[in-house]
């Protein structure tokens, strides 16, 4: 069915095509006020589209459509819903190139290393959750022999999903795929920095799903996100973003007494033991710090604790490897590292680099060359920075920067390094690098984080529970259990047979 939407591989043309639109009740619609805001190519500073400026009236329209569509959707068998969601995965899987290019254009994430990769895993999330539909099972309960007692899993109704700009496709999929399979309708609020590619995804999904089941609004937090969370007919909110906004969402949800899932920030430790395989650990630092994504990741390994005995060689090799990464036009296949997403984020990153330079005992290492192409002179490029000589008490080691700024912290005592790794308000992810299984097991049990890996640094994927502890969030995503816990409620039914 999605064949009716023509493939558009020119991201500039596609951006224009999607300009000024939201997707509500099965159709493209401008904001009800007619207002828009610009979408900027961060590699050049040029405007590529306008996005609809969604507000409360648009929230109202989208939620009303979702309420109506959900009632019919919930009546369908779970497997039928699952098949349709999996069909969305198949349709999206055919458009990896289209989606990857548009994502690179609007976010500045390099096409080859980041945007195409993200577009590629998008389909998998829908396929995975589509296949889990038959697992929406209840239980029978041995309550009384004369009473048939059972539980069933019912959908919540309308789910509000608020997403960030850094990995918008994957994070949206992690929310809406399980919500839909469980029988809910969704209203997504995209991030103001990246409204276009997710809009395209919803358009494609809508060619398979009934109208009104998936809706997407673009707009800013206070004007569009806040009324979505506060809407009386929204029965569940799932949010990924900053701690500060997460708390605002949680407070509003508390007033309505509705459940929330929050995936927030991180300052994830990577602990390199003296016996670690150095090449493996360096590769892990590059992948973990998401250098090719300019560090714009909540799980970024932004605190790298390296044992004193290998510290200097680790730093030198890491510097060489990051220096070899090519910064440039995100749409160029030769580019490893693209841009920062927005001028606001750029200011934030630069202020942290300045802070690092003023930090007592710290040394800044600026890596990888700035692009030479004059067309990119206004682009939001910033050199990845490594800071050595940092302690875990320094602000650059404590605060989430969400940019290519990485602290390397020297350590000698095992107990101290575990304590330092845990001495953070965050607890999203952690990695341990050692050949010693005993040490690895001890460390993984003691690290306060939701996602802990040894000798590798994989990104989130279907069937691996993902989410943090402490201020990193509330609730886990990407598994069967997360679908059951977060997108259904359990109803107990007792039938008296006497
Ligand atoms: P960032 O640092 O990336 O801006 P935010 O937490 O502000 O992180 O943004 C994540 C998402 O939350 C975005 O879609 C943003 O528009 C939305 N948002 C921001 N403020 C609010 C709010 N008060 N209520 C609901 N959503 C909001
Ligand atoms: Mg914000």
TrEMBL record:
InterPro entries the record matches: Ald_DH/histidinol_DH, Ald_DH_C, Ald_DH_CS_CYS, Ald_DH_CS_GLU, Ald_DH_N, Aldehyde_DH_dom
GO molecular function: oxidoreductase activity, acting on the aldehyde or oxo group of donors, NAD or NADP as acceptor
The keyword Oxidoreductase appears for this protein: yes
Gene3D superfamilies according to UniProt: Aldehyde Dehydrogenase, Chain A, domain 1 (3.40.605.10), Aldehyde Dehydrogenase, Chain A, domain 2 (3.40.309.10)
Native source organism of the sequence: Azospirillum thermophilum
Record key words, sorted: Oxidoreductase
Protein name in UniProt: Aldehyde dehydrogenase
Ranges of residues in domain Aldehyde dehydrogenase: 31-493
Active site positions, chain numbering: 263
Similarity field: Belongs to the aldehyde dehydrogenase family.
Lineage: Bacteria, Pseudomonadati, Pseudomonadota, Alphaproteobacteria, Rhodospirillales
């Amino acid at each position: 069915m999605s064949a009716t939407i023509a493939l558009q591989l020119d991201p500039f043309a596609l951006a224009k095509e999607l300009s000024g639109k939201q997707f509500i009740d099965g159709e493209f619609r401008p904001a009800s006020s007619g207002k828009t805001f610009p979408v900027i190519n961060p590699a050049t500073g040029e405007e590529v589209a306008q996005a609809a400026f969604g507000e409360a009236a648009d929230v109202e329209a989208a939620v009303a459509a979702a309420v109506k569509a959900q009632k019919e959707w919930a009546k369908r068998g779970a497997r039928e819903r699952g098949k349709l969601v999996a069909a969305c995965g198949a349709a999206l899987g055919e458009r990896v190139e289209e989606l990857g290019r548009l994502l690179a254009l609007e976010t500045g994430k390099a096409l080859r290393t980041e945007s195409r990769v993200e577009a590629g895993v998008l389909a998998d999330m829908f396929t995975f959750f589509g296949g889990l539909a038959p697992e929406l099972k209840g239980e029978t309960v041995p309550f009384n022999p004369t009473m048939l007692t059972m539980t069933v899993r019912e959908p919540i109704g309308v789910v509000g999903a608020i997403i960030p700009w850094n990995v918008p496709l994957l994070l949206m999929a992690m929310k809406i795929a399980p919500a839909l399979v469980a029988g809910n309708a969704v209203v997504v609020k995209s991030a103001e920095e990246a409204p276009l590619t997710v809009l395209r995804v919803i358009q494609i999904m809508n060619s398979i799903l009934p109208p009104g089941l998936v809706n997407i609004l673009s707009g800013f937090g206070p004007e569009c996100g806040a009324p979505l969370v506060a809407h009386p007919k929204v029965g569940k909110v799932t949010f990924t973003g900053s701690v500060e906004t997460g708390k605002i969402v949680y407070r509003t949800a508390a007033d309505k007494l509705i459940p929330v899932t929050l995936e927030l920030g991180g300052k994830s430790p990577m602990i390199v033991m003296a016996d670690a395989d150095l090449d493996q650990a360096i590769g892990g630092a590059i992948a973990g710090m998401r250098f090719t994504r300019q560090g714009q990741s909540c799980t970024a390994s932004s605190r790298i604790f390296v044992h004193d005995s290998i510290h200097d060689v680790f730093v030198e090799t890491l510097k060489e490897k990051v220096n070899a990464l090519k910064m440039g036009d995100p749409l160029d296949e030769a580019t490893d590292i693209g841009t920062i997403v927005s001028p606001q984020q750029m200011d934030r990153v630069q202020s942290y680099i300045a802070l690092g330079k003023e930090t007592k005992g710290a040394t800044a290492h600026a890596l990888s060359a700035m692009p030479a192409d004059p067309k990119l002179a206004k682009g939001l490029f910033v050199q990845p920075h490594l800071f050595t000589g940092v302690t875990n008490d320094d602000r650059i080691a404590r605060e989430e920067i969400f940019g290519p700024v990485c602290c390397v912290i020297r350590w000698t005592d095992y107990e101290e390094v575990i304590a330092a790794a845990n001495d953070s308000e965050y607890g999203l992810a952690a990695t341990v690098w050692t050949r010693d299984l005993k040490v690895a097991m001890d460390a993984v049990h003691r690290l306060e984080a939701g996602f802990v890996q040894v000798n590798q640094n994989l990104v989130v994927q279907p069937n691996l529970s993902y989410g943090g502890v402490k201020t990193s969030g509330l609730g886990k995503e990407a598994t069967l259990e997360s679908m059951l816990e977060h997108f259904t409620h359990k109803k107990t039914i007792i039938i008296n047979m006497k």
